[in-house]
Structures are given as C-alpha cells and as structure tokens.
What we know:
This protein has a four-stranded parallel beta sheet with strand order 2-1-3-6, covered by helices on one side. It has a four-stranded parallel beta sheet with strand order 9-8-10-11, sandwiched between helices. The chain has a three-stranded mixed beta sheet with strand order 5-4-7. The protein has helices at 12-25, 38-47, 54-66, 89-92, 94-101, 119-130, 137-161, 165-173, 197-200, 209-215, 228-239, 247-259, 274-289, 305-322; strands at 3-6, 29-32, 72-74, 77-82, 85-86, 107-109, 112-114, 189-195, 218-221, 264-270, 294-299. Helices cover 49% and strands 15% of the residues. α1 (12-25) runs antiparallel to α7 and α12 (247-259) runs parallel beside α13.
Amino acid sequence: MNKVGIPRALLYYQYYPGWRSFFEHLGAEVVTSPPTNRTILTAGISRAVADTCLPVKVFLGHTISLISKCDYIFIPSMTSFGKKTYNCSKIIGLPNITRAVLPEGPIILDPNIDLEKGRWYFYHQIYKLASHFTSNPVKMKKAIDIAWQKQLAYRKKMSDEKITPNQALSDLYGNPHSASPQKNPQGNLTIALLGHPYITNDEYLNHRIIYHLQNMGANILTSEMASQTAIDAAATKAVGETHWAFEPDIIGAGQYYTEMKVDGIISLSAFGCGPDSMMMVWVEHRAKDTKTPFLPLSLDEHSSGGAMLTRLEAFLDMIKRKGTKLPTPSPAYC
Length: 334
Ligand code: SF4
C-alpha cells in the first residue's frame, strides 16, 4: 500500500480530515508527522534561510521527519480560495520551496488549488493527483465527494461544539492530535484568540497559550468556533471584498468577536509575516474603536514561554481590574 505523508503544519489544521479521507478512499495509507517538538523545529531551521517565517521553518522540519516514512509527501500549492482571494506567496510556493531545500525527499504531490481558474481546472488538478493511486474515475469521484463531506463536517463540528482543531482532531482520530485538554472551563473572562490556525493550534510554537489562558480562568474563542458563514460575512462587513485567504479568520473573527463584546482580544502572529502586518493592524484599530482590550503577541524561534506567561497574566489582571461583563449573544451572521 502506498504511503502518503502529511506534515502536521501550515494548512494541516484546516484540511487534514478532508485530505486524509481523500487518500484513504483511494487506497493509500496516510502518515502524519508528530506534534512539533524541538528536534522538528531545529531541523526546519537548519534548512531555511534566516528570514523565512517560523511556520514555514516548522513545516520543513515536519517534512524532514516524514522523509523515510512515506512514498509521497502531500504539499499542495494552495493559491486561491475564491475570486481574487489569494494565499501568501510562501504557501503558494511551498512545493517548490520544499523541493529546493529538501532534494532528498520523496515525490511531492503538488496539485495547484486555484479556484480563480474555475471548476474544471480544479477537477483536472484533483484527478491528476488521484491518478497516482487509481485509474478508475468512479473511485476518484467517490473519494472527492467523501472527502468534501468529511471536510464540511469537521468545520461544522468545531463551530457547533465550540472546540479547536486540536480537540476536533482528537475526537476524530485519537490522542496524538492534542497535547493538552482544550475544552473551555467555566471561566469568568472571554478572550478571542486570533491568528493563523497553524500558529494558534501548534502548541509547541505558541507555548500552549490556550491551555495557560484557560488555567488563568479565561474562556477562549477562536475563529473556528464561529461558523464559516459568520466570519465570511463579518469580514465582508469589515473590509468589503477580501483579498487574502486568511482575512475571514483574522479580520472577520475580529469583527465578529468585537461585536459580541468579548472581554479582550489576543493576536498571535509570526515575526516577519507580511499579511499579518496588515491584518493584525486592522484588528488592533477595531479593538481600539470598540474599546476592547488588545494584546499583540509576535512569535519567532527565540520567543520565551515564560515571558509570554507574564504578559498573559498582566493582560488578564488589567481586564479584571476594569470589571467584567458577560458577552452579548453571537451577532446574527448565519
Ligand atoms: S501568511 Fe505569514 S506566517 Fe503564513 S506562511 Fe505567509 S508569511 Fe508565513
């Protein structure tokens, strides 16, 4: 049986159930790298140029950890998710970046997902990908349909149950997917945590920020805990047409949760990230306009968990001194 490696980094947190289901229904075995650890991070750093952002370094480390364990590595070029809406250039160029810095790796499966080019281009890319495993078009079509349903169910599960990707993946596939419990306790503060899913959900990179905030008595809301429809609509309300793939997750969720009057917002971004330098500033202005306490945190490989804990404690103390209030019901976007 062919083995397909999927690195536990970047878009993994958003699409793993759909991707896994697709390959399994084509008869392949899916192998996933372990949660990020020091060895993985160090390996990724050793192959990347210094000013590469932290999530891409981590991605390379995960890919290295899979090299001897699979026949193929799945690294799609996720270009465009809708009309004139594009991903960051590093995510678009990920297959080529990986080939350049890891020439010893196995064959890279690199479909170009570019919805701007229309439905037929998309299907052509997916059928070409599936042809590595079967020549039966009925089997291919079935794998696509089942994967799509699995993906929709995964997204709905997170918003319905108000859980993070790690919690949802733990429920679906078992424990290696989560290093710490993620269910919200009965906290008396509600904090929105905004950022790219591959930062807010990688517990090694973010020093288990959700776990620590929950232990300090905060309920945490992330973009996945609102429906996709709601954050898409909130992003449109905030900025009109969106042009970056992550605008709903960051600007949309920022708009949505400030309307919900959360007690505070924490933004988590990667040092040197171009898209974040625009989106997080929008969230900061929105927080200022709505008088919502705001804490920006930027991560790189030298970030210290201890320093971050101190800032989190100070932020929550400051909010508590201001006095707390219950969040208003969810805004009506869905
Ligand atoms: S969006 Fe930012 S953090 Fe994500 S891959 Fe691009 S530069 Fe890196």
